């Protein structure tokens, strides 16, 4: 009798703990995944490696002063960056700046501005999810 | 009766002098521009550059700037309507020709009353104050732009620009 109860209890506990520990970042990433599936039916998940490429790639479409994310954020995501006007930018790596990516509106605001500045267009959901995955892995 | 004119005159001069000094001290001198204290304005206007003191531009300039945030010197700095309204109100209330007046009497000198510059660096007084800065210094890797006040004015974020 006890044995029979143990399995469903374990399952329930697992589900409960996952939902309890899923913070705002995981929620945001899940939202991006849902949106990405709608954007591209062939969507197969986000990749931190692709996010890293995006972060360091030099784009031609944006402002000449800022061809890459790293123009302001710096090469190492765990180190603070600097805007052209000399303002310090806290490190983009989630492990270094734990309060980052916990406010979805703020994340969206900066994706919109910075993608336009660097890429000359807004980022796709795939790109946002990849980039965020990279920063959460750092 | 023998009136001591000389000491009296000297006393009056001293009094007038200290009155001028006191007035300047009360106004924080000509090089003090109170920094932004509103947390929302600090956050929204101080992420990319220092949150410039509202008393450094007239209200008409701030209104013009806030009406065109999606092209903010070539960058998209747009915010939602509610945030924009709150920021505008703060800037206009504390502008160089409104609430911030006592700090800015000199900074606006020479500016045409109908002119609404978007750059503090376009103010005639700003230009004359910085005329001795050579071109190579502006291009220095730690300066790069005239909006980088803190590169030379170490205390700019606290409102002091005397150095």
Structure description:
The complex is a heterodimer of chains A (138) and B (163). Chain A is an all-alpha fold and 138 residues long. Chain A has a single domain, classed as Cytochrome Bc1 Complex, Chain D, domain 2 (Orthogonal Bundle), CATH 1.10.760.10. Chain A is built from six helices and two strands; from the N terminus they run ααααββαα. Chain A has helices spanning 2-21, 24-39, 48-56, 70-73, 104-119, 125-137; strands at 81-82, 88-89. In chain A, strands 1-2 form a two-stranded antiparallel ribbon. In chain A, strand 1 (81-82) and strand 2 form a beta hairpin. In chain A, helix 2 packs antiparallel against helix 6 and helix 3 packs across helix 6. The longest helix of chain A is centred in the first third of the chain and has 20 residues, at 2-21. Chain A starts with a helix and ends with a helix. By secondary structure, chain B is mainly alpha-helical. Chain B has one domain. In chain B, 40% of the residues lie in helices and 0% in strands. Chain B is built from seven helices and no strands. The longest helix of chain B is centred in the first third of the chain and has 22 residues, at 5-26. The mean pLDDT of chain B is 88.
Q: H/E series of chain A, N to C? A: HHHHEEHH
Shape of chain B: elongated
Give the low-pLDDT segments of chain B. Answer: none
Name of the CATH first level of chain A: Mainly Alpha
Q: What's the CATH architecture of chain A? A: Orthogonal Bundle
Major protein interface: A-B, 11 and 19 residues
| Count of β-strands of chain B | 0
Number of helices of chain A: 6
- Order of helical and strand elements of chain B: HHHHHHH
């Amino acid at each position: 009798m006890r044995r029979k109860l143990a399995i469903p209890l374990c399952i329930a506990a697992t589900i409960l703990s996952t939902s309890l520990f899923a913070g705002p970042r995981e929620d945001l990433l899940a939202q991006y995944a849902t949106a990405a599936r709608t954007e591209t039916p062939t969507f197969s998940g986000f990749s931190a490696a692709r996010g890293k490429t995006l972060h360091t790639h030099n784009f031609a479409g944006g402002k000449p002063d800022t061809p890459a994310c790293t123009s302001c954020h710096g090469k190492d995501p765990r180190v603070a960056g600097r805007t052209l006007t000399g303002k310090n930018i806290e490190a983009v790596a989630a492990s270094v700046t734990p309060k980052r990516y916990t406010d979805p509106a703020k994340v969206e605001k900066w994706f919109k501005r910075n993608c336009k500045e660097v890429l000359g267009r807004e980022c796709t959901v795939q790109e946002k999810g990849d980039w965020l995955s990279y920063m959460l892995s750092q | 009766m023998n009136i001591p004119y000389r000491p009296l005159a000297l006393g009056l001069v001293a009094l007038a002098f200290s009155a001028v000094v006191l007035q300047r001290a009360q106004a924080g001198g000509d090089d003090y521009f109170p920094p932004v204290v509103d947390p929302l304005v600090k956050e929204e206007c101080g992420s990319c550059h220092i949150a410039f003191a509202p008393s450094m531009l007239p209200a008409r300039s701030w209104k013009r700037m806030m009406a065109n945030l999606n092209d903010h010197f070539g960058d998209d700095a747009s915010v939602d309507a509610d945030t924009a309204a709150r920021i505008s109100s703060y800037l206009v209330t504390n502008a160089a020709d409104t609430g911030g007046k006592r700090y800015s009497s000199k900074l606006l000198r020479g500016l045409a009353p109908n002119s609404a510059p978007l750059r503090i660096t376009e103010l005639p007084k700003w230009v004359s104050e910085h005329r001795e800065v050579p071109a190579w210094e502006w291009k220095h890797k730690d300066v790069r732009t005239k909006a980088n006040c803190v590169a030379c004015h170490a205390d700019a974020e606290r409102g002091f620009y005397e150095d």
